[in-house]
Amino acid sequence: MKIHPEGRRVLALLFVGLGLVVALVYWKAPAQLPVVAVAAGLFFLTILQFFRNPTRMVPEEADHLVYAPADGKVVVIEEAYEPEYFKAKRLQVSIFMSPVNVHVNRNPVSGLVKYNKYHPGKYLVAWHPKSSTENERTTVVIDTGETEILMRQIAGALAKRIKNYLEVGQQVVQGEDFGFIKFGSRVDVFLPLGTRLNVEIGQKVKGNKTVIATLE
User: Fold this and answer.
1) Burial, 144: exposed, middle or buried (Cβ in 10 Å; 0-12, 13-18, 19+)?
2) In sequence order, which residues have a C-beta less than 8 Å from that of residue 64 and are 6 or more positions away?
3) Which residues act catalytically here (predicted)?
4) Number of C-alpha atoms within 13 angstroms, CB side, residue 7?
């Protein structure tokens, strides 16, 4: 299993810490060692799966296809006012990542990064109506040459570490990693009004595999 670089330091420290706990139990209460060792192993595996990074190629690189930027479940599809960059209505698609989903974020389209801004904020649960404007978040806009697509990584009650690797002026390729949200949360995608959607509320999607929309 491929591990994302964001998890390597966390996992190394956790491995050492759990090893010390097991060693201490072995020294002080050896009768409890089997239970503690199993619990430590399960806990380590739980954290390990948060940082898995499966290799995925998009089935077809195409300017008119918008792939899911994250694994998870579609929780919002609506026309919404986007106040930060467009300052106008757009079609919003939101994907909620649970703790068991892959947490890597991937470019849904190819193009030029026009905007990238990090906002510190609160840690409301990801499905809270105000989470997209009040939580810690990073907003990125990619210009495809034909239109602009906005993505917003949103932290939640557990996810308090947003990583974004893009820079303004950078040319990005559809399907490549652009960020990571530790322990889940949400990614919003804002599309032009009238965009044909290929997903529905409650549908489970996979980054680089599920086409969420088709640009006209």
Assistant:
1) middle
2) 214, 215, 216
3) 185
4) 23
Both 73 and 130 in one domain: the answer is yes
Which one of 110, 131, 132, 185 is the catalytic residue? Answer: 185
- Output the CA–CA distances (angstroms, integers) from residue 172 to 104, 114, 145, in the order listed: 16, 11, 12
Name the least confident of 2-11, 100-109, 199-208. Answer: 2-11
Judged by DSSP in three states, 97 sits in: strand
- Mean pLDDT to the nearest integer, 88-107: 90
42 with 135, same domain: the answer is no
* 72 secondary structure, DSSP code: E
Distance from C-alpha of 198 to C-alpha of 211, rounded to nearest angstrom: 6
Strands 196-197, 211-214: parallel, antiparallel or unpaired by DSSP?
antiparallel
For residue 91, is it within any domain?
yes
Instruction: State whether residue 11 is helix, strand or coil.
Output: helix
pLDDT in tens, 118-151: 988 665 555 555 556 667 889 999 999 999 999 9
By C-alpha distance, which of 106, 16, 89, 124 is closest to 54?
106
Q: Is 185 a catalytic residue?
A: yes
- What is the span of the domain harbouring residue 96? 65-214
Average pLDDT in the chain: 86
Query: Are 1 and 177 spatial neighbours (Cβ–Cβ below 8 Å)?
Result: no
